[in-house]
Amino acid sequence: MPLTMARPARHNAEYFSHTANLRNDRRIKAIRTQCGATGYGVLVMLLEALTDANHTQLDTEELELELLAGDFGVSVTEIHSLLQIGEKVGFFARNTAGFLICPDLNDWLAEVFEKRNRARNAAKPPKSGVSVTETPVTVTENPQSKVKESKELPNGNSESKTPPTPGVGVFQKKIGVPVSEVEPWADAPSESPPVAPPPPAWLEEARELAAGMYGFWALTHLQADAQRRVLEFVQGRYAAGAGPQLAEQFVAYRAFKTESQERAHSWKNWIAAPGDGQLPGWQEANWPDKLTTYRKTTHEKGTPTRRSPVGADASQRHHLPAVVSFAGDAA
Predict the structure, then answer these.
(1) Which residues of the chain have pLDDT under 70?
(2) Could you tell me if 159 and 192 lie in one domain?
(3) Where is the stretch described as Disordered (predicted)?
(4) Could you write out the three-class secondary structure of the chain?
């Protein structure tokens, strides 16, 4: 019997199906409102690309986005804008590896992968018939069969044929499929689409902080690349466990620059060092202490400030509130 090789496992699909009123989904309406009909077309093309990609996930690094933009015939900025609002409303998400996924698409494709797995499992030989060991069986006499006592051979000799004694054990091989022919199936991986892990607990707070930075530096959706870099920087700090420190630094920095009317850093120099051994703006000073010192000095001199100090005591340290809200900050 020829050796049957396992068909290579597939982790993508050739099609996806969705409801006819997808455009009226509240999340899709939010995307359409911000990105227009062109954005809806880009969204559908992203779903097609995800469907065709292994494990229905996409790398969205800068080079990959450039390639996608060339494929879709749109700018990288348009894709950035769509992904930003798409992730914000929850239609798109990120898995633990940072790849782009669409939980809804994985639900739509679940039936496709399940059907493929059923077909693969149905083709697997039953494990119960694999054994090639010899098993003793007992042969009993069939009353409806007659056994010839002798058989005449062509040369005139005869061969005596004596039926086995009832109850005497004989060995008989079980007929089955050799183990070597089913081994390729044994390690066949599951083809179900990966389940998106729950987002980290700090994700919403990181997005809020990033939105505050968008507002402070007037980064609109037309500057999607700048917004993306700021968001990645903030998420990186939160992932490293330094999110609260960054938030406290930014809130104090924003208050200090606003009240003192000093020139602010550029957003690039705030998140990254400009070079020549300099520190990035967020690490350049202890901004809560600097704000406290400035307010105390200003209060003692009696010089009015653009914003009232936090609390009744102008010399108190500027602490981040328990709940930070940058609503309305984003341009």
Answers:
(1) 1-10, 15, 120, 122-197, 300-331
(2) no
(3) 119-170, 297-319
(4) CCCCCCCCCCCCCCCCCCCCCHHHCHHHHHHHHHHHHHHHHHHHHHHHHHHHCHHHCECCCHHHHHHHHHHHCCCHHHHHHHHHHHHHHCCCEECCCCCEECHHHHHHHHHHHHHHHHHHHHCCCCHHHCCCCEEEEECCCCCCCCCCCEEECCCCCEEECCCCCCCCEEEEECCCCCHHHHHHHHCCCCCCCCCCCCCCCCHHHHHHHHHHHHHHCCCCHHHHHHHHHHHHHHHHHHHCCCHHHHHHHHHHHHHHHHHHCCCCCCHHHHHCCCCCCCCCHHHCCCHHHHHHHHHHHHHHHCCCCCCCCCCCCCCCCCCCCCCCCCCCCCC
Minimal CA–CA distance to 181: which of 240, 223, 142, 124?
Answer: 124
* CA 97 centroid distance within chain: 7
Q: Using the CB atoms, write b or e for 31-57: b if 16+ within 10 Å.
A: bbebbeeebbebbebbbeebbebebbb
Tokens of 239: 């992932």
Do 23 and 103 lie in one domain? The reply is: yes
Q: What is the pLDDT of residue 191?
A: 52
Task: Report the pLDDT value the prediction gives residue 148, as an integer from 0 to 100.
Answer: 47
Question: Do residues 185 and 227 share a domain?
Answer: no
Same domain, 262 and 216: yes
Find the domain containing 169 and state its range: 129-180
pLDDT in tens, 152-163: 455 545 554 555
On whether the pTM is more than 0.90, the answer is: no
Give the pLDDT of residue 9. 64
